[in-house]
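pls design
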């Protein structure tokens, strides 16, 4: 057996940076009227970090709408302070009770559209969605005729945090396979929560008619976009694990996520 070192061209390459540093966008993309909608419940430790990172992006027209569900840990009060600190670029919607992720997003998106946003980003407050991908999502939307661009864990190049154990990976993979089988929707990461929408696409979906309250909201939005002929594009992201706080997924949310695709298909068949 030869002991020679492998040819240089066969040596392992340097690892790819999967959570990129934010990049500058050229005009007129840089001046896009972009609003990031962030639902919160007990995210006092994460929200200031997220807002700081978003404000540091080279996107001067970026705005943030925080939708807080009366968080016991004071997240709403922190959001109000951030709104004052950032002089109108951050606004806060205070809801009186924890009414589900879907309803929070609908209220936040509706506000963003009313305030004149041309593009709306959905992202979690728990820092699992790296802010560095926001310019990539926006750039991809501008470069295509897509109605929505999804930050996908399951297209080539996408990845999950190493902190995710085998059980969570299996559950996430099964959920995507189940939804795609039931709804026949050509999306790799149909349960994804990190994405950017054109305002025109959101208006076509009839936000007021969205029925899902929990994580099934993501599926319903994708399905409505697909059934209404909106182009869907996916780009790879690295999905981080939350550092502070705990997951909001509970039994009721999981049950809705399992049953909603069946109801969506049945409702679609009834319209034919």
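designed seq:
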């Amino acid at each position: 057996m030869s002991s020679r070192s492998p040819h240089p061209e066969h040596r392992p390459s340097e690892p790819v940076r999967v959570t990129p540093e934010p990049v500058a966008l050229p005009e007129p993309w840089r001046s896009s009227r972009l609003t990031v909608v962030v639902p919160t419940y007990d995210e006092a430790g994460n929200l200031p970090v997220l807002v700081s990172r978003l404000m540091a992006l080279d996107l001067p027209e970026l705005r943030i709408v925080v939708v807080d569900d009366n968080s016991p840990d004071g997240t709403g009060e922190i959001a109000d302070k951030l709104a004052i600190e950032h002089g109108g670029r951050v606004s806060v919607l205070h809801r009186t009770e924890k009414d589900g992720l879907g309803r929070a997003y609908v209220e936040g998106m509706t506000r963003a559209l009313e305030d004149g946003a041309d593009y709306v980003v959905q992202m979690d407050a728990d820092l699992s969605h790296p802010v560095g991908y926001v310019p990539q999502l926006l750039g991809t939307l501008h470069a295509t005729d897509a109605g929505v661009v999804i930050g996908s864990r399951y297209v080539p190049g996408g990845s999950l945090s190493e902190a995710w154990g085998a059980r969570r990976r299996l559950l996430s993979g099964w959920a995507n396979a189940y939804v795609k089988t039931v709804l026949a929707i050509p999306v790799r990461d149909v349960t994804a929560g990190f994405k950017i929408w054109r305002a025109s696409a959101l208006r076509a979906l009839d936000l007021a008619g969205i029925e899902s309250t929990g994580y099934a909201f993501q599926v319903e939005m994708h399905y409505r976009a697909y059934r209404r002929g909106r182009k869907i594009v996916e780009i790879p992201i690295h999905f981080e694990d939350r550092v502070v706080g705990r997951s909001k997924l509970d039994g009721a949310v999981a049950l809705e996520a399992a049953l909603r695709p069946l109801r969506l298909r049945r409702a679609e068949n009834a319209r034919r």
